[in-house]
Amino acid sequence: METSRRDARFDNLKGILIFLVVLGHLLELVGGPAAAWLYRLIYSFHMPAFVFCSGWFARFDASRFFRRLLYPYLLYQTLYLLFDRLVLHGKAPLQYTTPYWLLWYLFSMMLWTLLLPLIDGAKSPKAALLACLAAALASGFDPTIGYNMSLSRTLVLLPFFAAGHLAAGGGRRGLLPQLPRRGLIAVLSGWIALSGTLFWLRRSAVRSVWFYASRSYEGAHYDPELRALLLATSAAWIVLLLLIIPKHPLPFAAALGQYTLPVFLLHGFFVRSLRLLRPDLPPLAGIGLAALVALMLCAVLGNRFTAALLQPTFCAPRLTRPVPNLQKSRTGHPAH
User: Fold this and answer.
1) Separation CA 218–CA 201 (nearest Å)
2) Among its keywords, does the record have Transferase (predicted)?
């Protein structure tokens, strides 16, 4: 049934996640083992969780595909490449097959959206998820799959997109075992606490590139068993967050969660510029400063005024009147 009410739980979740996206990028400027550990902990789940949210609200529609995915990708790919050459004095060529830095997400969203008919046409949700998981694990054996066309990330994170889409579309039955809520929370929390502890104890051996899902096993120097473990940890985070995040709006997070796209697309210009200054931040104080700057960026960029001002850059105008959709769709926004 169509409703105008927003799902506050997903607004809360997206608000928290977009803050972590900005914080993660700023932590790259902070030295020390504590910042490195926090950075890897964030990267162990925040993008898989965003992909899950995107799958939850995704639907295949040609007009929507052009206006909300292809158009902003082409525009911001051009802007970021020009910014790289003119401001950062880089040498990035003007091309559109390898997304610039954070724009991989828009490119992957286009590919995931094109795969929706295959996901919906699967015989069962479990069969679709198993096929996506097999693709995620098998893709690491091909050293040619990497940043080009965001193919590695698209395949590795595909299970989370499919899981979100199938769960939201009525396929949640059978996706997860029916366990007591408190027991499930305890098990998931224990798994996450154990993985976080191992990240810290083995911090000298843990590589950040493992969490990017952007390279093959050979290129990132790890193996399919480790990739499977990282995917399982990300899945545990997602389920735990869905269980513990309240269904009523949280201050700041719920409001921010309604405007994640401008934060996602625009904060990169600031972070890239900040790298030019090469600030020498003390480890612990640097973490606090990074969190404060992340909050400020989210507050400035993630509001209805910024979204309204820059809306023409996020979504192309309709060229024709929309055709009425006889099938009522879910409400919500894809999280980027």
Assistant:
1) 24
2) yes
* pTM exceeding 0.85: yes
Domain boundaries, the chain: 8-314
* Rounded Cα gap, residues 80 and 93, in angstroms: 11
Contact 43, 212 (CB under 8 A): yes
From residue 165, give the alpha-carbon distance in Å to each of 134, 136, 305.
18, 17, 30
Eight-state DSSP code of residue 280: -
Mean pLDDT estimate for the chain: 89
Indicate the pLDDT class of residue 4, thresholds 50, 70 and 90: very low
Tokens of 109: 């969203």
φ, ψ for residue 299, nearest 5 deg: -65, -40
pLDDT tens-digit readout, 245-278: 999 999 999 999 999 999 999 999 999 998 888 7
Task: Compare 320 and 88 and report the one with higher pLDDT.
Answer: 88
